DNA sequence: GTTAGCACTCACCGGGGTCGAGTGCTAACT
DNA sequence: AGTTAGCACTCGACCCCGGTGAGTGCTAAC
């Protein structure tokens, strides 16, 4: 009796499909009529009763229909993932949106989040690529002012970091250039981390420029540390269109969460090497998202860094559509970063 | 009968105060009791009737209290502004939030928006400074890759713009430096706009580097154009706490508006030279904000550029509090940019 | 000019009744 | 044994309704 057979599965699937579409508890009659399996409502009822016992269905109250549990969704997407991604029809839509010229990293990220939310009608999150410590390729000092210079560090992943530091007044453009060459020679090929450690060793060579080294040190320290990823978010307010978020309190706490970028980033961040992650309801581990699902995919850059794109929506998400969109979007981004062999700096 | 006298004004003030606090239509009895002016409810009623005729009060339905009209708020804040800003007690709170070290421009902007929304409990918007065309101080090319270089342009307002452009393969670091010096010599003191026009004249001098000039040209063109200001927003979801936005549809359209940065920026952007702007309800000129008010203030940088900070909330906003907070916040930002005489680059 | 009094209006609230979708169970049918 | 028709039952959604109370406008008296 209690075992999950082929027919139960088909019924469950129908229930999930219907619920995803309507957000209304679905009854036995609906299934037997709209999804013509040659069974009467009574039979469906029996099966549904079994499915509830197995934990795949919940009943909000005695005389409403059933709604799928988190466990049901889990089963659903697992099957979906196994079967391979279905209709990749959205491919064109995604492609079309990337026609425009690729701009700076941040713009690409923002744009991607925008597109993703437009296509899915859910909230979209895009994390910039992170990965193996980038290695320094060039260090250059640009005069800004008397007593101030801009440090530009170019790394092999193309990411440019810069900041203004104070230097002693007497340094003119040529001197700065000479120092730049020394620094480049010494630090090339190192990670930022290593550079921090190496810096004291250079104090001898450049001891007249104590101030400069001091500033440089502070900058490197900061950059090498937790380089807070500037996550891009799109379609924050999309969630409000879904009846499960008609409750103001819920909506508020969700949107507040969306505002704390750091927290959001850590929630989204991919851990494993998997192409896709689907976290359903409680699996998100975030109380505010008790009835949300998070679907993420990865993309990568030429230099092997990995970024994450994700979609957040109600548990009754159109998983198949979302997965397919995420898939092509991931490919597009990967392509974008590949063809574009000189990688743009990450800022405005 | 129809003229606005001192007593009417006091009554109107009481009504506004009460409504701002409670968001509930306020009746004659409430006024005569809570705000002890030596008048009976009947008298208040008569006055209220007059005030309604004058257009300062609205009546949602016959037997509810009155609520202040946009015209009433207008009068209220005008009087507030004339009287000078009241209790600047929030000064400390603002100060406290700026203790931390000032970081890059974008961070400052973000942080300011955050603080502003926390203090006011409304939605806050901060526009980065814009102003007279910045003038070029230095142009420098930094090698990134074979065939690619980073262009860094430092302007007198300290803003640094950069991008990666393609150059011919044979250019090594020293050659790039030489070209940089030429470019700097030629372009120093020009605005970006002027630089675009001057560039063709340089083609003779640097004709071997057609590619470089081409890239530089594109970059300058882009930068000198509409440099879309990266507006920072804080407390987007705060608006949801106010009963006037209990309607989901309204909330949605508001939040959607908040997501289109460009539009928002153009709404917020200060036109005049005034220290404060208060736009109430219809005065905003944005249908989505029919029952919002926008209060803005300006701050300025050492080099005379001006930025805008603003707060968006329901029409029954705590104007006095908000004005006072905006005031000190503006001062703080101005101070911050003044002491900090080397201005930080505007990017990450 | 102010106030007490009064009739009137109308949103809001809670109770009761109806409706209908949906269930669980039983008995009959294949 | 599995499937189905039938039926009683449950319970939320909706509507109607009268009571309540805050608030008004008007009038007459102070």
Q: Any low-confidence stretches of chain A, pLDDT <50, length ≥5? A: 341-348
> Kindly state the mean pLDDT of chain A as a whole number?
83
Helix-strand string of chain A: HHHEEHHHEEEEHHHEHHEEEH
Please provide the count of β strands of chain A: 10
Largest interface: A-B, 47 and 47 residues
Q: How many structural domains can be distinguished in the coordinates of chain A?
A: 3
CATH class of the largest domain in chain A: Alpha Beta
Oligomer: homodimer
Main sheet record of chain A: 5 strands, antiparallel
Continuous helix count of chain A:
12
Strand content of chain A: 15-25%
- End-to-end separation of chain A in angstroms reads 63 Å
Structural class of chain A: alpha+beta
Topology (elements, then pairings):
The structure is a homodimer of 348-residue chains.
Chain A: H1 6-22, H2 28-34, H3 41-53, E1 57-58, E2 67-68, H4 70-82, H5 91-97, H6 105-120, E3 123-130, E4 136-145, E5 148-155, E6 160-166, H7 173-187, H8 192-202, H9 210-224, E7 232-234, H10 248-259, H11 261-268, E8 276-280, E9 292-300, E10 306-314, H12 319-339
Antiparallel strand pairs in A: 1-2, 3-7, 3-10, 4-5, 5-6, 8-9, 9-10
Helix pairs in contact in A: 2-3, 6-12, 8-9
The structure holds a DNA duplex (30 and 30 nucleotides).
């Amino acid at each position: 009796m209690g075992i999950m057979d082929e027919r139960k599965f088909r019924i469950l699937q129908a229930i999930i499909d219907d619920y995803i579409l309507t957000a209304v508890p679905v009854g036995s009659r609906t299934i037997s009529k709209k999804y013509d399996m040659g069974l009467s409502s009574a039979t469906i009822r029996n099966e549904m009763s079994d499915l509830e016992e197995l934990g795949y269905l919940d009943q909000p109250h005695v005389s409403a229909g059933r709604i799928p549990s988190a466990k049901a969704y889990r089963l659903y997407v697992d099957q979906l993932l196994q079967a391979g991604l279905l209709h990749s029809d959205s491919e064109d839509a995604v492609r079309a949106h990337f026609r425009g010229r690729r701009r700076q990293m941040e713009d690409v990220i923002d744009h991607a989040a925008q597109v993703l939310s437009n296509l899915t009608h859910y909230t979209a999150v895009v994390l910039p690529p992170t990965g193996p410590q980038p290695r320094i390729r060039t260090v250059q000092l640009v005069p800004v002012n008397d007593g101030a210079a801009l440090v530009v560090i170019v790394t092999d992943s193309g990411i440019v970091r810069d900041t203004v530091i104070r230097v002693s007044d007497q340094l003119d453009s040529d001197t700065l250039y000479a120092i730049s060459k020394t620094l480049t020679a010494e630090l090339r090929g190192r990670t930022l981390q290593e550079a921090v450690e190496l810096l004291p060793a250079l104090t001898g060579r450049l001891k007249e420029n104590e101030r400069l080294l001091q500033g440089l040190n502070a900058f490197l320290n900061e950059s090498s540390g937790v380089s807070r990823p500037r996550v891009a978010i799109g379609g924050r307010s999309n969630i409000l269109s879904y009846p499960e978020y008609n409750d103001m309190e819920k909506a508020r706490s969700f949107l507040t969460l969306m505002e704390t970028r750091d927290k959001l980033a850590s929630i989204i961040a991919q851990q494993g090497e998997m192409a896709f992650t689907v976290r359903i309801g409680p699996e998100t581990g975030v109380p505010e998202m008790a009835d949300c699902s998070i679907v993420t995919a990865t993309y990568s850059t030429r230099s092997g860094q990995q970024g994450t794109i994700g979609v957040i929506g109600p548990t009754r998400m159109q998983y198949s559509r979302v997965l397919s969109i995420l898939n092509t979007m991931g490919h597009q981004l990967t392509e974008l970063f590949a063809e574009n062999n000189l990688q743009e700096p990450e800022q405005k």
